[in-house]
Design brief:
This protein is of the alpha+beta class. It contains 5 helices and 9 strands. It has a 5-stranded mixed beta sheet with strand order 1-2-3-5-4. Strands 7-6-8-9 form a 4-stranded antiparallel beta sheet, sandwiched between helices. About 40% of the residues are buried. It holds the Pfam family RNase_PH_C.
Length: about 240
């Protein structure tokens, strides 16, 4: 029995809410159970220097956790004077995931910066951030389309992410903190709507796991991402 009582292939309750920030060109509050991540997309009418005069745009991301997003207060990284290695790794992952499905030639020499701020953490913050950031990015492109800045949405297909793991010897979907902290293995899968693999991060926390166990985790992730894409499309009014 999972601590939450969920079935092994059951996601936490998923809520993807758009228009949660009045200033950002795109925004989404992603709730994966008790993990809540605010994702905003900001349109910047310039690109990094190395992309000037290339005809290409850029999508990048920043990630952070608020001081009381966890059960004890953590200092803001700005107060410490530098980002942790974990923060840098996660925000690069988010950026790679979104660029993988974006036509960077489709919105001119502009940059879209995705800010993913963890309001509350209960496991799976990076997967919630990627899933919500896609919605915020699409929402931003919808805004640009309404004002004639783009003719078509320059996204090839949705991308979403979900965690899976081996908990008490069984493959389970979408780990919360109670499971993640005790899992024998855990993995984060970033997949496209068509099943394409963008990135996989998998780690044995105890004994090595087998290819057969990995295949079970991938099958769970594929089903989970299909459900997440349905939530993304509904949030964007595409159903």
């Amino acid at each position: 029995m999972r601590p939450s009582g969920r079935a092994r292939d059951q996601l936490r309750p998923i809520v993807l809410e758009t228009d949660v920030n009045k200033y950002a060109e795109g925004s989404c509050l992603a709730r994966f159970g008790d993990t809540h991540v605010l994702c905003t997309a900001s349109l910047i009418d310039a690109v990094p220097p190395w992309l000037r005069n290339s005809g290409r745009g850029w999508v990048t991301a920043e990630y952070g956790m608020l001081p009381r997003s966890t059960d004890s207060r953590v200092d803001r990284e700005a107060a410490r004077g530098k980002q942790s290695g974990r923060t840098q790794e996660i925000q690069r992952l988010i950026g790679r995931a979104l660029r993988a499905v974006t036509d960077l030639t489709g919105f001119g020499e502009r940059q879209i910066k995705l800010d993913c701020d963890v309001l509350q953490a209960d496991g799976g913050t990076r997967t919630a951030a990627i899933t919500g950031a896609y919605v915020a990015l699409h929402h931003c492109f919808q805004h640009m389309q309404r004002f004639g800045a783009v003719k078509a949405i320059p996204l090839r297909e949705p991308v979403a992410a979900v965690s899976c793991g081996l908990y008490e010897g069984e493959a389970v979907l979408d780990l919360d903190y109670a499971e993640d902290s005790r899992a024998q293995a855990d993995a984060n899968f970033v997949l496209t709507a068509s099943g394409g693999i963008v990135e996989v991060q998998a780690t044995a926390e105890q004994d090595p796991f087998s290819r057969a166990q990995y295949d079970l985790l991938l099958e769970l992730a594929e089903a989970g991402v299909r459900d997440l894409v349905t939530h993304q499309r509904a949030a964007l009014g595409l159903d």
